[in-house]
Amino acid sequence: MIPEFKDRLIGSHILISEGLDKAVYHAEKLGCTAIQIFTKSSSQWNAKKLTDEQKAGFLEARQKTGISVPLAHASYLINLASPEPEQWNRSVEALFQEVDRCQFLKIPYLVLHPGSHKGAGVKEGILRTAEGINRLHEHQKENGTVILLECTAGQGAAIGSKIEELADILNEISDQTKIGICLDTCHLFAAGYDIRTKESFSNLFNQFDQILGIEKIKAFHLNDSQKELGSHVDRHAHIGKGKIGLEGFQYLLNDPRFKKIPMILETPKGTDDTFDLMNLTQLQKLIRLQK
Hints:
Elements: E1 10-13, H1 20-29, E2 34-37, H2 52-65, E3 70-73, H3 85-104, E4 109-112, H4 122-139, E5 146-150, H5 163-171, E6 179-184, H6 185-191, H7 198-211, E7 217-222, E8 224-225, E9 236-237, H8 246-253, E10 263-265, H9 274-286
Parallel strand pairs: 1-2, 1-10, 2-3, 3-4, 4-5, 5-6, 6-7, 7-10
Antiparallel strand pairs: 8-9
């Protein structure tokens, strides 16, 4: 049975190997009302220019399916926090390209990892990331695509595992209308933020609201965690099959503050749609019937 998400924006990351438009139709087949894609290979710097035909097909698919809020995820190669000038400059150029592609396809949000300071220190990494985003905003000719900084698990020299670090980056951004936050549940948990009880869930988002403002949350990635609380290891698990368990996701899915915010699965994939359908169905079960 295909899950249904009325009045909610819930979906999965879908591959575009068969085409941008085919990815949208694939998401609809799974019952998704939102989608996340890469607009290019996540492991390569360059990409072929998008065509008007691809754009038309993508926009038509969105109109026909009703999937009106797609997200794109930036390449994993981009590291705006890098202290190495060559890598930093290449990362900024790649981010320009990512945003240009999103604006061409009318994608409202681009999810971006804050980056790794590579030993230069958190403060230096924060300033470099903010500088790169400010350069991007100077480059942007339109206001159509908002960068969403994704919280991290805190592996190695990655920045953005603490709410305060995300706030420090945002405080350096000149144009606040083009920046927001994507919270990944696995990353939050691995970074030490517990959502498994009503009290810990409430404490986390009260803290977030005080430091950053709850309105800065524009998207969620829904992933359970293979590793323990505070492990700083980023290993995604199926919903309810990891160390977070079902209760934390139930709190999140039924929090009225987040009802209109896109929530995207990045759970492990299989050779077919079995795992996506399993996780989407589990999410549907956790959503209480609204009267």
